[in-house]
Amino acid sequence: MRSAVVVGAGVGGLAVAGALARSGWQVTLLDRAERVRPEPTAVVLWPNGVRALQALGLGAGLAAIATPLPDGGVRRPDGHWLVQPRPTPADRMPVVVHREDLHDALIAGLGDRVELRTGVTVRHVRVEPGERPGVNDGRHTIEADLVVAADGTDSVIRRQLAPESGVVSSGCAAWRAVIPWYRAPRLPADQPIAGEVLGAGYRFVAASLGERGSSGGSSRGGIYWVATAAGAPRPEPPETQLALLRRWYAGWPAPIAALLDATDPSDLVQQEVRELRPLPRAYGFGVGPGGVVLLGDAAHAMPPHLGQGACLAFEDAATLASLLREARLPDAVQTYDRVRRPRAATVVRQTRRMSAVLQTRGRLALRARDAALGTINSRLLSSAAASAAQWRPPA
Ligand SMILES: Cc1cc2nc3c(=O)[nH]c(=O)nc-3n(C[C@H](O)[C@H](O)[C@H](O)COP(=O)(O)OP(=O)(O)OC[C@H]3O[C@@H](n4cnc5c(N)ncnc54)[C@H](O)[C@@H]3O)c2cc1C
Hints:
Elements: E1 3-7, H1 11-22, E2 26-31, E3 42-45, H2 47-55, H3 59-63, E4 67-68, E5 74-75, E6 81-83, E7 95-98, H4 99-110, E8 114-118, E9 124-126, E10 134-136, E11 141-143, E12 146-149, H5 156-161, E13 166-179, E14 195-198, E15 202-208, E16 223-230, H6 238-248, H7 256-262, E17 269-277, E18 284-287, E19 290-294, H8 297-300, H9 309-326, H10 329-358, H11 363-390
Parallel strand pairs: 1-2, 1-12, 2-8, 5-14, 12-19
Antiparallel strand pairs: 3-7, 4-7, 5-6, 9-10, 10-11, 13-16, 13-17, 14-15, 15-16, 18-19
Bound molecules: flavin-adenine dinucleotide (FAD).
């Protein structure tokens, strides 16, 4: 039986571990955390992410927890429309999912054939000519035919195999929260929740996860919002961070103030936004008769402006699982590299163009941006949406 060690039980590692186990691989999944659990936030999945999860055999589980996300348009802080909401064709409609629901679905997908070991911090990947690859936690080495590095932005495996790729700050911090359905503000029927507001270096996006138990909605329900602001994360306690957010976004269009008022400091998740620059030169490395691959943020951490990080991790997992069903290991690793690197590079390029638009500051630059945003943003978003809609898992 072929064996794999997957390092990292985030969304990418969970997805690929389950897929390999379902194809008959013996899988060991390692995570440094004592308990594997997701952040209490949500994630937007574009059609490519949804299609990848379907290819991984997780479509039914996803359908039960996903809420469609209609286009809410883009406004300026003074309420002026930069991009009007438009009806979204069904094949381009993203969905929003509570991360805890997604985690439950991915854990269910592991079945009982994946050996999950927590509290194991991998420190080193063994890549010796003629030998199978292995990972070492400072005490033991676990070797396998395939090592999947799904250990996130700070991946130790990528640092060892692709040291040319560094982690840098994207120049902004992000705050996210899910307001549970029972605490969510009751908004007037004509006031849509979904939508995006763009200011000078500031951005606010909201989406509804529906009410608990509503058909097709998250089993947890509520309202998800994410705010990004230029600069570093704040060192103050969550209560103060929330007060700062209320001040930064004061006077912005409804329902932003109502959402911030309904947010409890314990709902708040703050994060520095970071990315890989440059991308690793390779995503697959032949090692003896087997290989090592980079997957998810370990391969292509990027700012969340297009909401594509997790979607690409699912694409990686679906592609790898499909290639390993069809080809021998060293060939599958090479093909994975050939297919996934250009794909990730395209999405990263689109994300960087979006970052430049979002981070525009200064009065003149802002006026020029606002004048151009209607076309730039809708063109950029359409090309990103088109590339998301067009992706198909390998046959
Ligand atoms: C603000 C924000 C909003 C976002 N919104 C979206 C969105 O709407 N849509 C979308 O598609 N994406 C979004 N993303 C991106 C998405 O969250 C990530 O791309 C995705 O979670 C990456 O998953 P991963 O499994 O590759 O890595 P991670 O989730 O980082 O998991 C890595 C795992 O590896 C473990 N690990 C790390 N090092 C070691 C080690 N040495 N040994 C053992 N275990 C280790 C960690 O404990 C962790 O469990 C967003 C990101 C941010 C910051």
